[in-house]
């Protein structure tokens, strides 16, 4: 009895669903469904008293099980037949006699062009607003990050970098290199002369004015400018290998050659950066960062040379000695680059005299400070790839394309 009840209810549910989907089914289809319902009710009554009555005789004398499914099978056929009749009876209304489509007016094309132009302008304005919004949000997030870092570093020991003259370093480069290995940082006093610095700063200022005039409102061209954190009032100007820039480079390399060879893997170390960092009044403090994310072996040695005295309010570079190692990078990352033991470690401020240089491992954590003065700060800088190492930033480092991979330490 349970089996019969289940079949009857299942058939009834299928019919109800079918009828619900066909609210305007033809009467013949509805009649077939009603007949099916009557068949189902007969099955239910026939099996209510005994399971032995499950079968009934047909006209040919055979016994078979009564089921509502034969009538359900007729429903799809009826549906298709009804649909075919409806398609046969559908009449396409012809166009009235004499109907001629109106020709295009002369202004139709212009109107379509105007609509297209308005849509294009609206799309461009929307993209501009979106990009500006993203830039503002990014700058706000960067400001928040810098504020958190400053707060984390406020209790750390801070002092000026101690310097060693280029003459002393040249006398014992192995000792200087050993100290550099431990701290990732060294200061070389009088890396270039004041005369060379004065000539180069004049050349940098003139070149910067020319390149900014060439750029206009189109943005800074990548052939002359590199990428730098906090670009407002801050420029990374790529230098040409000529004039005062070439003379300053050769002088600095000559004064620190033995030290550079010891820290950059020898005379085959390749020049990979040759530029000037310009920080105008009002430039913001950068977030603490490494120039190269941690890797086991040193890959780049960078030198920042002051082209004028760098005073405390001009935004001198802040370095965290010893932060070029794996433990410091891990702590820095685990704290979301906003705190932790890496930023709580002692830091050194590179207040320099004209011609002095700070040399550092590119993995070292550091940042440019805020220029709260009324004077421009210009740092001449150059970097060498350690011979035999892999520099992940070699393709985007700040050097003009015609100079990339061209010079080694031995060439200079």
What would you say this structure looks like, in words?
There is one protein chain. With 412 residues, the chain is α+β, with helices and mostly antiparallel strands. The protein has ten helices and 13 strands. A seven-stranded mixed β-sheet has the order 4-5-11-8-13-7-6. The longest helix is centred in the first third of the chain and has 48 residues, at 106-153. The protein is elongated.
Give the SSE map.
Blueprint: H1 2-21, H2 27-46, E1 55-57, E2 63-65, H3 69-89, H4 106-153, E3 158-160, E4 164-165, H5 166-171, H6 173-183, E5 185-189, H7 194-215, E6 234-238, H8 243-263, E7 270-279, E8 300-306, E9 318-319, H9 326-334, H10 341-344, E10 347-349, E11 357-361, E12 366-367, E13 377-385
Strand order, sheet with most strands:
4-5-11-8-13-7-6
The 3D shape can be described as elongated
Report the radius of gyration as a whole number of Å.
41 Å
Count of alpha and pi helical runs: 10
Largest sheet: 7 strands, mixed
**How many β-strands, per DSSP?**
13
């Amino acid at each position: 009895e349970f089996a019969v009840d289940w079949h009857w209810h299942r058939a009834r549910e299928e019919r109800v669903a079918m009828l619900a989907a066909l609210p305007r089914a033809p009467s013949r289809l509805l009649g077939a469904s009603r007949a099916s319902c009557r068949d189902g009710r007969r099955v239910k009554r026939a099996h209510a008293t005994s399971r032995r009555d499950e079968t009934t005789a047909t006209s040919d004398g055979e016994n078979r099980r009564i089921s509502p499914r034969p009538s359900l099978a007729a429903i799809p056929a009826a549906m298709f037949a009804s649909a075919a009749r409806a398609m046969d009876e559908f009449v396409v209304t012809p166009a009235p006699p004499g109907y001629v489509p109106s020709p295009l007016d002369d202004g139709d094309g212009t109107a379509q062009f105007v609509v297209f132009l308005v849509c294009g302008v609206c799309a461009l304005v929307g993209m501009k607003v979106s990009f500006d919004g993203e830039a503002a949000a990014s700058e706000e997030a960067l400001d928040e990050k810098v504020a958190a870092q400053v707060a984390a570093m406020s209790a750390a020991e801070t002092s000026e970098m101690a310097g060693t003259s280029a003459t002393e370093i040249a006398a014992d480069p192995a000792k200087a290199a050993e100290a550099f290995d431990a701290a990732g940082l060294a200061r070389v006093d009088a890396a270039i002369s004041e005369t060379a610095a004065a000539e180069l700063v004049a050349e940098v200022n003139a070149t910067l004015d020319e390149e900014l005039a060439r750029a206009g409102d189109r943005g800074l061209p990548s052939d002359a400018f590199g990428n730098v954190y906090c670009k407002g009032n801050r420029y990374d100007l790529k230098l040409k290998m000529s004039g005062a820039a070439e003379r300053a480079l050769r002088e600095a390399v000559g004064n620190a050659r033995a030290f550079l060879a010891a820290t950059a893997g020898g005379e085959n170390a390749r020049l990979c950066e040759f530029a000037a960092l310009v920080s105008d009044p009002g430039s913001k403090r950068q977030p603490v960062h490494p120039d190269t994310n941690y890797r086991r072996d040193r890959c780049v040695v960078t030198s920042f040379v002051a082209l004028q005295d760098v005073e405390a309010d001009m935004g001198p570079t802040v370095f965290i000695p010893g932060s070029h190692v794996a433990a410091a990078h891990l702590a820095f990352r685990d704290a979301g680059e906003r705190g932790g033991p890496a930023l709580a470690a002692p830091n050194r401020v590179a207040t320099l005299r004209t011609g002095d240089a700070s040399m550092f491992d590119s993995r070292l954590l550091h940042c440019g400070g805020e220029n709260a003065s009324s004077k421009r700060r210009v740092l001449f800088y150059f970097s060498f790839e350690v011979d035999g190492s892999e520099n992940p930033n070699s393709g985007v480092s700040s050097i003009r394309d015609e100079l990339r991979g061209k010079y080694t330490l031995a060439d200079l």
